[in-house]
Amino acid sequence: MFDPVPQPLLPAVFHIMLALGDHDLHGYAIKREIEMRTGGAISLGPGALYGTLQRMLADGLIAECGERADPERDNVRRRFYRLTAEGRKLAAAEAARLESLVRLARAKHILRKPRTAT
Fold first, then answer.
1. Is there a contact between 7 and 30 (Cβ–Cβ < 8 Å)?
2. How far apart are the first and last CA of the chain?
3. pTM
4. Please, are residues 62 and 12 in contact by the beta-carbon 8 Å criterion?
5. What count of other Cβ atoms lies within 10 Å of the Cβ of residue 83?
6. CA angle (94, 54, 75) in 5-degree steps
7. What are phi and psi of 83, to 5 degrees?
8. Ramachandran angles phi, psi of 10, nearest 5°
9. How far apart are CA 52 and CA 43, in angstroms?
10. What is the C-alpha to C-alpha distance for residues 22 and 83, in angstroms, rounded to an integer?
């Protein structure tokens, strides 16, 4: 049977998955991590961030893991999110898809191979 090529994830979805890959975060912390990791190249506004979080919740890719006090914000209660098993599986598939594209770009001499430390 034909196994279709997985459809690419939206960049916002993949970046949120990466942010949640190793720990639970609240929305604003997700935004900050994405900005920090991309050097500010990607900055999700509130509408994009919380709209994407809602869609990911509805699709079962992330789950709310309760409200907690945020000591950085005078203990304001925030909703925390975590990546679900399904979300982790989809993130891994997307990373593998991107990795295969990088290999192809290198094979076609579009992207240079990384230099090794000597």
1. no
2. 47
3. 0.85
4. no
5. 24
6. 110
7. -75, 130
8. -65, 140
9. 13
10. 9
Q: Three-state secondary structure along 73-107?
A: HCCEEEEEEEECHHHHHHHHHHHHHHHHHHHHHHH
At 48, list the tokens.
Answer: 């994009």
* pLDDT tens, position by position, 45-59: 999 999 999 999 999
Cα separation, 100 vs 62, whole angstroms: 25
pLDDT tens digits for range 74-83? 556 789 999 9
In the chain, domain spans: 11-107
Q: State which fold the 11-107 domain adopts.
A: Arc Repressor Mutant, subunit A (1.10.10)
CA-based radius of gyration for the chain: 17
